[in-house]
Design brief:
Helix content: 25-40%
Distance between the termini: 29 Å
Strand order of the largest sheet: 3-6-4-5
Strand content: 5-15%
Number of domains: 1
Order of helices and strands: EEHHHEEEHEHH
Low-confidence stretches: 208-221, 230-236, 241-256
Number of strands: 6
Radius of gyration: 19 Å
Largest sheet: 4 strands, antiparallel
């Protein structure tokens, strides 16, 4: 088992590197918390065609297939987007952002156990970075390595502009880590984000610790990318997923 930033990591169900073959494993269970009282009677009835049960907890086979096709299309579009990024420009901009936020390189995550502050995960192969806040930086980074995004949340908003989730990447994709101890995490994170081109950020929503009201509408403020240079294509049939559909119950999703 490899040792990565001082931590022993295992391949687990999804491996140690992101691959298309292991991406978007079908799952019919809905991760969206939806109850009839969240909708008008008409909206609830309109949603019903997407599910096999009256409680709207399990998608039909057709919806599962469409979710998988959309996720894989979005995966391919993101990979094409990454490939077009200038590597040298990414490295220069990242160094400037790290310096502005006074982040330091992390070589051993164990030294960050229980430390509150800001962390930045870098995925050099993809020329991407992710910035987050945590009460325990070591625990939070490890959770990114071992977790994965729910099947019906792989696409966040429109298929052709959804940012790939940081939790889709695996442990060994994360090639560098920076962090800083701080009780003013919002300020530190803002300094980093302000200096980095958004094309290099995997964060799906803005920074900061969201309050209850903001959590309910994160889908509306989600960050998007124009993954196609051509005119915006027609989106597939609307599905009851993502946080920005008028027919979807506000979903609590704290990932960025």
């Amino acid at each position: 088992m490899p040792v990565h930033f001082g931590e022993v990591v295992t391949a687990g169900k999804y491996g140690l590197h992101l691959t298309r073959d292991q991406y978007a494993a079908p799952n019919p269970r809905s991760s969206i918390y939806a109850r009839p009282e969240h909708f008008t009677a008409e909206q609830w009835d309109q949603r019903a065609r997407h599910f096999i049960d009256a409680d709207q907890r399990f998608y039909t086979d057709e919806v599962v297939q469409m979710l998988r096709e959309n996720a894989l299309l979005n995966f391919d579009l993101n990979m094409a987007f990454f490939s077009q990024i200038d590597e040298l420009r990414f490295l220069i901009d990242l160094e400037e952002a790290v310096t502005a936020a006074r982040l330091e390189p992390v070589h051993d995550l164990r030294k960050w156990d229980g430390v509150e502050g800001v962390y930045v995960m870098v995925f050099d192969k993809y020329k991407q970075a992710y910035v987050g806040q945590s009460w325990n930086i070591r625990k939070r980074v490890r959770s990114h390595w071992s977790g994965t995004k729910q099947f019906d949340r792989l696409v966040f908003g429109p298929v052709h502009s959804s940012v790939l989730s940081v939790d889709s990447f695996r442990a060994l994709d994360n090639t560098r880590i920076f962090a800083v101890r701080s009780r003013r995490a919002d300020l530190v994170e803002s300094r980093f984000v302000d200096r980095l081109n958004p094309d290099y950020l995997l964060n799906r929503v803005g920074g900061g610790r969201p309050d209850e009201t903001r959590l309910r509408f994160m889908g509306l403020e989600g960050k998007r990318r124009q993954l196609l240079a051509s005119e915006t294509p027609t989106e597939p049939d609307a599905l009851p997923t993502g946080g920005d559909s008028a027919t979807v119950a506000p979903a609590v999703d704290q990932s960025k």
